[in-house]
Design a protein that fits this description.
Blueprint (H helix, E strand, L loop, with lengths): L2 H8 L4 E9 L3 E8 L4 E8 L1 H7 L1 H12 L11 E5 L2 E7 L4 E2 H8 L4 H20 L12 E4 L2 E4 L4 H15 L12 H4 L7 H17 L9 H10 L14 H10 L11 H9 L18 H15 L7 E2 L9 E4 L6 E2 L17 E2 L5 E8 L2 E8 L5 E3 L6 E6 L5 E6 L2 E6 L6 E5 L6 E4 L4 E5 L5 E6 L10 E4 L6 E5 L4 E6 L3 E6 L2 E4 L1 E3 L5 E5 L3 E6 L3 E5 L5 E7 L4 E2 L3 E4 L12 E3 L5 E3 L8 E6 L6 E2 L7 E6 L5 E8 L2 E8 L5 E7 L1 E7 L6 E6 L4 E6 L8 E6 L7 E7 L2 E5 L7 E5 L6 E6 L2 E6 L5 E6 L5 E5 L6 E4 L4 E7 L2 E6 L2 E6 L10 E5 L11 E3 L5 E6 L4 E2 L1 E5 L2 H12 L2
Antiparallel strand pairs: 1-2, 2-3, 3-5, 4-5, 6-7, 7-8, 9-10, 10-62, 11-61, 12-13, 13-14, 14-15, 16-17, 17-18, 18-19, 20-21, 21-22, 22-23, 24-25, 25-26, 26-27, 28-29, 30-31, 31-32, 32-33, 32-34, 35-36, 36-62, 37-38, 37-60, 39-40, 40-41, 41-42, 43-44, 44-45, 45-46, 47-48, 48-49, 49-50, 51-52, ...
Length: about 900
């Protein structure tokens, strides 16, 4: 029986299938009559081999998202289902033609028509992008014309196919997208694409409407892809000089090879198209050097490998040119673990685990194997990769300036060894792993302890025992720092990315200045920063973009910042996995924006359940004991917000705003919240009710955040547990009934202090060793709880204690006689995100809540941009003229 007859019989109760309208690479289209609604519809039936690869049920589950897209320029999705193992989906029948039909007839469209169709398509894309849907297959065939206006079809179908079966499709030789309209990143086989890939494709369509041909064509798929990756599109004016210069610029910018050089959004592209030749240009189109013959030959080979589905060892490298990026695939058996269990003290966020040799020949990164890590060497010359012997447990790798030695952290030690392997030399045996490790000269290494106040100057030649290895105590905390040699100053990231300069024992914020030099109103916030030529500051902003600004350490002047790149993988604190060589090569791990995370609940034996609230850049959070309300600190470009979410409705209110908000913690009744704040001039502990009209009360305040204790838990409604602000950083109890609040010291050197629900036991983490300890309450004889590993202890009940090791939680049970059971695995989640401070809290129903990434943790490839520094300088200088 033929497919037409089979389809008609299977759907006869709903649709009368009349005839075949056409067939494409993914589906066959039939005209049908919707019996119930008495209307014509188009039924698309997925190719059987494609349906087999993807899986019908998974495909249908994914396209549910696209069924909710309702926009005047988007063709709706009416229905979907399966027929004999293959998938069909139903859309309105458009009594008109496709843009492909019109182009076949007219070749070139009137400029006004081309601009109108492109802007209408951009409006549809913008709407979909705001709802988290990327089309991935914009081309004239998928733009229908109804009354001359655009209707975008198959919205999200390519997305559903890619999410459900991209890997298996690649293995079978099938490809998603059409080569003439594929963005370079899509042509290179990237799985994680953002909205700018659609902007590129629409640029191709606009180019074709104006010139009569797509920007790149060729006799074979391989030839087209090679041009997409290497060639510069011909100026539109050489074909059609009547096209306004502003329109040409808009199209050519949409066709930039590097996503960061394109219009940031489809809406921006539409706005630019509407401008005419008299509109000021927003920047010159990206110019691309043509590759040499040898480079082109190598690239063609790589393109062929990509199109044939080869993965793992293929080096997708483009010729060296300004702002031209290339990817280096990592072995399938050794992906980069971008968020390994870095240490046992809970300071995993902010650690950078990618390092590249100064000459750009190789990179080193960690690979997780079970509960440990090993450092791997990845050549950027011949694509070889291998583990480095002697680096078991290694994290925070740093290659020496001459590229011959490797410094890294393992357990609580700083070690150095030849890159090619050999003798491992101990430089430092610390109480806990350092948070910063950096070569500041060919022989000198700076290590910053995770207490944030101890600096170690290590000599790589003679080891830690030599007098040249010095230890310095700071008067202000600096967890992640960069040494400015010319100024003999340390630039540090305080809290969640407030840049501060530490010099001669003092600390002050580096505040943004207005262009006239007058003081600005906001601190510069970000992570993973670098100083270039003592004049430029490069960092990962809170929006997840790599940003840069002019910087003068003598005057503390920071100018206007510019966004240079998005899509860098970052941890929950916003720290990006990237490195920058002296020659200006930027290396990074691609990933989704750090704000694209969600709050989930986990109970033993169950999958994580997403809480019914928005996705946001969550940092710290706490849940009322009835489980109804969540208090969460969210990072925004304007600073921190404390939002109160009602989990029954999903709605929220913003209760507090400040440059920094620590906590929050609900009292046992769920009436009041306590937080620790910094507003730019004053630090304080605040306590109040989000339901009250009056502002929260000030429990205590000081001139510096380092002078205010850090709350860790409520003892009862009137007593608060906290970590002291001064050495030996004791656990303290704060009496909230007294004004000013009174406190007494309980235990020295304690973090993550928690009291059991019955008030009988106290658990804490020793500072700086990270050891978990248990005692009676009030404190009595100390009992060591866990010999190895484990952070952030949480009481699930009066006799059940949970602690975390990486993305795995273990449970111990406490006997009435003081015995402690052996740890047993309670749960795990590879997408767990380690947020600053408490990264998980109890949900009061036997489970916990935490932040979960929507991105995968392990990276399958690294991305590189040569000459990034030159591009950065030009952009920053232009923005600050």
């Amino acid at each position: 029986m033929n497919p037409f007859t089979t389809l008609g019989e299977a759907l006869s109760d709903r649709y009368t299938v009349e005839r075949e309208l056409g067939a494409g690479g993914m589906a066959t289209v039939y005209l049908a009559h919707d019996i119930k609604h008495d209307r014509k519809v188009a039924i698309k039936v997925l190719r059987p081999e494609l349906a087999a690869v993807i899986g019908a049920e998974r495909f249908l589950a994914e396209i549910k998202t696209t069924a909710n897209l309702q926009h005047p320029h988007i063709l709706s999705l009416f229905d979907s289902g399966t027929v004999n193992g293959t998938v069909f989906y139903v859309m309105p029948f458009v009594d008109g033609e496709s843009l492909r039909d019109r182009l076949s007839r007219e070749k070139q469209l009137p400029i006004d028509d081309a601009v109108r169709i492109a802007t209408e398509t951009a409006e549809a894309l913008q709407y979909a992008h705001q709802h988290g849907v990327i089309h991935r297959d914009i081309k004239p065939e998928n733009i229908l014309l109804h009354g001359g206006h655009a209707l975008v079809a198959d919205f999200g179908i390519a997305l559903a196919a890619s999410k459900t079966g991209a890997t298996r499709m690649t293995e079978t030789g099938m490809s998603l997208g059409t080569p003439q309209y594929m963005s370079p990143e899509q042509a290179m086989g990237e799985r994680e694409l953002d909205a700018r890939t659609d902007v590129y494709a629409l640029g191709c369509v606009t180019y074709e409407m104006l010139t009569g041909a797509p920007p790149f064509s060729g006799p074979t798929v391989q030839a087209i892809v090679a041009k997409v990756l290497t060639d510069r599109p011909s100026p539109i004016a050489t074909v059609r000089d009547t096209v306004p210069r502003g329109v040409e610029h808009a199209v050519l910018r949409a066709l930039a090879k590097l996503p960061a050089d394109r219009w940031a959004t489809a809406s921006d592209y539409a706005d630019a198209l509407r401008s005419d030749a008299s509109h000021p240009l927003r920047g010159a189109p990206t110019r691309i050097q043509r590759p040499t013959a040898s480079r082109l030959s190598a690239l063609l080979g790589a393109a062929c490998l990509i199109l044939l589905g080869t993965t793992g060892w293929a080096l997708r490298r483009t010729p060296a040119a300004p702002s031209r990026m290339f990817d280096a695939a990592l072995p399938d058996s050794a992906p980069m673990s971008s968020a390994p269990d870095l240490n046992s003290t809970g300071y995993g966020t902010g650690i950078v685990n990618l390092t590249v040799a100064g000459n750009g020949d190789f990179a080193v990164y960690p690979v997780r194997h079970g509960d440990s890590t090993t450092l791997w060497y990845r050549s950027l010359i011949d694509a070889s990769a291998h583990p480095i012997a002697g680096t078991a447990g290694g994290t925070t790798p740093r290659i020496s300036p001459d590229g011959t030695r490797l410094a890294f952290v393992s357990a609580n030690r700083v070690l150095v060894m030849p890159v090619e392997g050999g003798d491992v030399k101990l430089l430092l045996q610390a109480d806990a792993p350092p948070t910063t490790l950096d070569w500041v000269s060919p022989t000198r290494i700076l290590a910053i302890s995770n207490d944030g106040v101890t600096l170690h100057w290590l000599d790589s030649e003679v080891g830690a025992s030599d007098e040249k290895s010095m230890t310095v105590k700071l008067k202000a905390r600096c967890y992640f720092g960069r040494w400015i040699a010319s100024q003999k100053r340390l630039l540090c990231s305080q809290g969640e990315g407030v840049f501060e300069e530490i010099s001669t024992g003092t600390t002050h914020s580096l505040r943004a200045r207005n262009t006239d030099g007058s003081p600005g109103s906001s601190v510069v916030t970000g992570q993973s920063f670098r100083i270039v030529d003592d004049r430029y500051l490069i960092y990962v902003g809170v929006d997840g973009d790599v940003r840069a600004a002019p910087y003068d350490p003598r005057t503390d002047l920071i100018g206007r910042s510019v966004s240079l790149l998005s899509g860098v993988k970052a941890d929950a604190a916003g720290s990006g996995q990237l490195d920058l060589t002296p020659q200006g090569l930027l290396a990074f791990v691609p990933g989704k924006p750090v704000s694209d995370v969600r709050m989930v609940a986990l109970r033993p034996g169950q999958d994580p359940k997403v809480l019914p609230i928005e996705q946001a850049h969550f940092q710290r959070f706490d849940l009322t004991r009835d489980g109804h309300r969540l208090a969460a600190v969210v990072i925004t470009p304007q600073g921190h917000e404390l939002r109160i979410y009602d989990l029954r409705t999903g709605q929220h209110q913003t209760w507090l705003r400040a440059e920094y908000i620590g906590g929050p913690f609900w009292d046992p009744k769920g009436d009041n919240i306590v937080v620790r704040t910094w507003n730019g001039t004053r630090a304080a502990i605040l306590r109040g009710s989000p339901d009250a009209a009056n502002p929260p009360d000030t429990v205590m305040s000081a001139a510096s955040l380092n002078q205010v204790p850090e709350p860790t838990d409520y003892h009862d409604d009137s007593n608060l547990l906290a970590r002291g602000a001064t050495e030996p950083y004791p656990a303290i109890r704060i009496d909230l009934t007294r004004h000013p609040a009174a406190f007494d010291s309980l235990i020295p050197g304690a973090v993550f202090v928690q009291i059991s629900p019955d008030g009988q036991r106290l658990v804490w983490q020793s500072q700086p060793t990270g050891q978990l300890n248990l005692t009676s309450y009030p404190p009595g004889p100390r009992q060591q709880l866990v010999a190895l590993g484990g952070v952030e202890p949480l009481w699930l009940s009066a006799n059940e204690l949970l602690f975390r090791s990486g993305a795995t939680w273990n449970l111990v049970r406490l006997g009435a006689d003081g015995t402690v059971s052996s740890p047993e695995r309670w749960g795990s989640d590879p997408r767990f995100l380690d947020t600053p401070g408490w990264s998980n809290r109890v949900s009061w129903d036997g489970g916990i809540i935490y932040v979960q990434s929507t991105d995968v943790n392990d990276a399958r490839f690294l991305r590189f941009i040569p000459n990034f520094v030159a591009t950065m300088k030009n952009a920053v200088d232009k923005a600050n003229r």
